[in-house]
Structures are given as C-alpha cells and as structure tokens.
Amino acid sequence: MKVKFLLVLSALVVFSFSLSFGAGYTIDHVDGAYGTQDSIQTGVPVVFYIRTTNDSNYIFGVGTNGFRIYSPDSATWGGTVPDTVYPGWSAFWAFGFYLNAYSVDGAGADTVGFGGIGGLSTGPGLPAGFDSVTYSITIGPIDTTNHGKTICIDSSYYPPAGEWLWGADPPNNGISPNWYATPQCYTIINPNELAVTEIGGGNLPAEFSLQQNYPNPFNPTTQINFDLPTKSKVSILIYNVLGQKIKTLVDEQLEAGKYVEEWDGTNDAGVKVSSGIYFYKMQADNFVQTKKMMLLK
Known about the structure:
The protein has no helices and 23 strands. It is an all-beta fold and 297 residues long. Strands 1, 3, 5, 6, 8, 9, 11 and 15 form an eight-stranded mixed sheet that branches. It is elongated and about 70 Å long.
C-alpha cells in the first residue's frame, strides 16, 4: 500500500493564446466528506472533484500541471484513480485525451498523467469562458486505523519536478494557471470513534446547552452532556492551551434530544495527552460555547 501518490496533467504537445489572471483550478467538492468539509471518512471511496476555469481565449492544449495527494503524518490508503467527469470532455481534444501512469520510486504507479491536444484546425480546444468540474481523483477506501491522521491535496509539478503550465504563446513562453486551493488538508474520521449516546426519557430540551464536564478535574475519563432542541449539525472539538485542536469529539448530524459523550484523554491519533488544562467547544447551528476542563494524572 502506498503512502504518497502524485497525480498530474500532462500533454504531448501544448499550445494556447495568452491566458488572463483567473484561469485555473479549484477543488469543487469532495465525496466521502464527514460532517464539515475539512474531514473525510474511512470505509468509503473519497473523491476529490477539480473545477477548471478559463476566462481568456480558448486553449489548444492542457498539460504539464497536476495534483499531489500526500499525508504529512503517514496515513495510508488504497489505489488512486483519476478520471474525467465533464460530458464530452474528449471532444475538445481532436488528437485525444490521454491517461498515462508512472512510477517515481519504482514500486508501482504513483504518478498518473492526463493530456489533451486539440484546437487550431484540429478541434475546438477549451472554450473561452469555460467553468465546470472536469476531473475526479478517487482514493481509498481508507482503513479505520488512520483515524485522526491527515490527507492533503495540492498542485504539483510534473513529473515530479518541472513546470506548472497551460500551453505557450509563443511555444516557449508558458502561462501558469492559478491553483486556488493551496494545500487543502482533511482530517480522517472513523465514524465509529465518534459515537454519541442519547439520553432517553423526558421532554425535548427547550434550548441548546453545553454542560460542564463531570468529573472535573478528571482521570482517566470524563463525560460531556449537551442538549439539542432541534435536529442539528453538531461539532465538539477539544483544544489545548495553545489553541491547537487535538481531538474531534463529535462531528455529525443529530436529532433533537439530550446527549452525553465521553472523552478518554486521547488525541485524534489515539495517543494519551499530558496533564493540564483543555478547552472543549460546541457548535450547533448558531449556538457556540466553550468550557474549560482539567486532566490530572
């Protein structure tokens, strides 16, 4: 199983008229996101969708730019599969749209390249004003052992050092498209690690509330009770005194009711944290509240 993959867009021949500022790529959306869009879940394929925009003249070829999938804390996942998702995408490229696989380390294909060639008298090329999702990059399913780790997607040179370019006019003066995302990183969530217990009985709460954890101070575990008067998207995050998030305790849609969640003093990687003061922050709809707790060992 590989730890790092490099996905790139490459073309055999690339020509274009000059492109104005604003043409480029963004992450449009992610299938397999968990709750907030900065988390992805285990057990399902995760698909990143890439939007292409061209606000200048039409492009004869698309190439030499790409996307890198990596993990700063050694998360692992299954194969990486690139594809095109725009209907009729290949019709823009009279000489075809190509998919090539490469290996940087010799251990299997960890670099995947696309290339489209068209325009001039051979085909339409990429039209001026084009703005649509064009590519998908699928990874996973991600194993549950990666809960709390991180996967990032970023632009990348090809292959793996070179140029990040769309075309040339004249041929030796390439134009760099914009990559609007910078590195976009996602926390891996195993939903089974975020199970919340509903407290049955009684009337539904009249308002949102976050109660003081009990016991406090605590060792080794503590419970946090909270109330929801309506069905809500709820997040409860734990921070250290430096303001760094160390644990996603709750991140899911819950029905109206009274709930309790236990924290065992571990971070998102499952490692026990040190003694000290910590803060837990709940957000649900427009309700936001933060409370302090102390872990003693």
